[in-house]
Specification:
Blueprint: H1 2-25, E1 42-44, E2 50-52, E3 60-62, E4 77-83, E5 87-99, E6 102-111, E7 116-125, E8 128-135, E9 138-141, E10 149-150, E11 153-163, E12 166-172, E13 180-182, E14 194-201, E15 208-218, H2 234-240
Antiparallel strand pairs: 1-4, 2-3, 3-15, 4-14, 5-11, 5-15, 6-7, 6-14, 7-8, 8-9, 8-10, 11-12, 12-13
């Protein structure tokens, strides 16, 4: 009996260490509680007003500044992590409430050495908002089909994958919708380490925006793949149920 209990304890400890190490290596952050949980986050142009869980439980909320854009240069408020991984797959859910003629928010993978990037983003305009697939000053898909939403409060689920120098994107409007692939893919040579993350900005001299992200998922890490309803890491949750 003692041997069995000791074995169980050792197995549990081993899996706990694996889980903790995976969190350190993973990009995932569920934005639960009142602080950023992933220790690898870095800010570019950290906003004066941002919080986790205070404005809305389970969400990262921030207010960007005016004259912040991701087009000819990157002047945005950006939350990112560094990586040299050859394969990356990330996902987020973004909701933006904005007024004005220009707002940007979404996913980005940036190569600082080239000062170039690939981004899957909302471009909010005075009358409407569209999803775009871009590199620096280059349209891959200037207006993703059927992605237009009226100006005001907009939302989308965005997903991006990197395989070598090829980048793929997907989007959907609602949680229960099927993912829609964005074509063509977006090949680009970016030298690691890369900066992987989310961003936002008011890309005009005036305007207002509140940008919220529900989560940032690393879909390449099976240990931190989460159940969409409970936000509990699926592998870890299943393992704990046996003890």
């Amino acid at each position: 009996m003692r041997k069995c209990l000791l074995t169980t304890a050792l197995v549990t400890l081993a899996f706990s260490l694996i889980f903790v190490n995976s969190l350190l290596a993973s990009f995932t952050d569920e934005f639960e509680g009142t602080s950023l949980k992933n220790p690898n986050w870095k800010w570019q142009n950290e906003p004066a007003n941002w919080d986790v869980g205070k404005t809305k439980a389970g969400w990262l909320t921030f207010t960007p500044k005016v004259n912040q854009n991701l087009w000819s240069d990157d002047s945005t408020t950006r939350l990112y992590q560094e990586t040299s991984a050859n394969k990356i797959e990330i996902e987020t859910h973004v909701v933006v409430n904005y007024k004005g003629e220009c707002m940007v928010a979404g996913l980005v993978i940036k190569g600082p050495k080239e000062n170039n990037w690939t981004t899957l983003k909302f471009w909010g305009r005075s009358a409407d908002a569209i999803i775009q697939w871009q590199h620096k000053q280059t349209e891959v898909v200037g207006n993703v089909p059927n992605s237009t939403q009226p100006a005001g409060t907009i939302e989308a689920y965005l997903r991006m994958a990197k395989d070598g120098n090829n980048y793929m994107g997907w989007w959907k409007k609602s949680k229960t919708d099927e993912w829609i692939a964005i074509k063509p893919d977006a090949p680009i040579d970016l030298t690691p380490p890369l900066e992987v993350g989310i961003f936002g900005g008011i890309c005009a001299g005036s305007g207002e925006a509140t940008i919220q992200y529900e989560y940032f998922k690393d879909l390449t890490d099976p240990v931190t793949a989460v159940d969409s309803h409970s936000k509990l890491p699926v592998t870890w949750g299943m393992m704990k149920s046996h003890y």
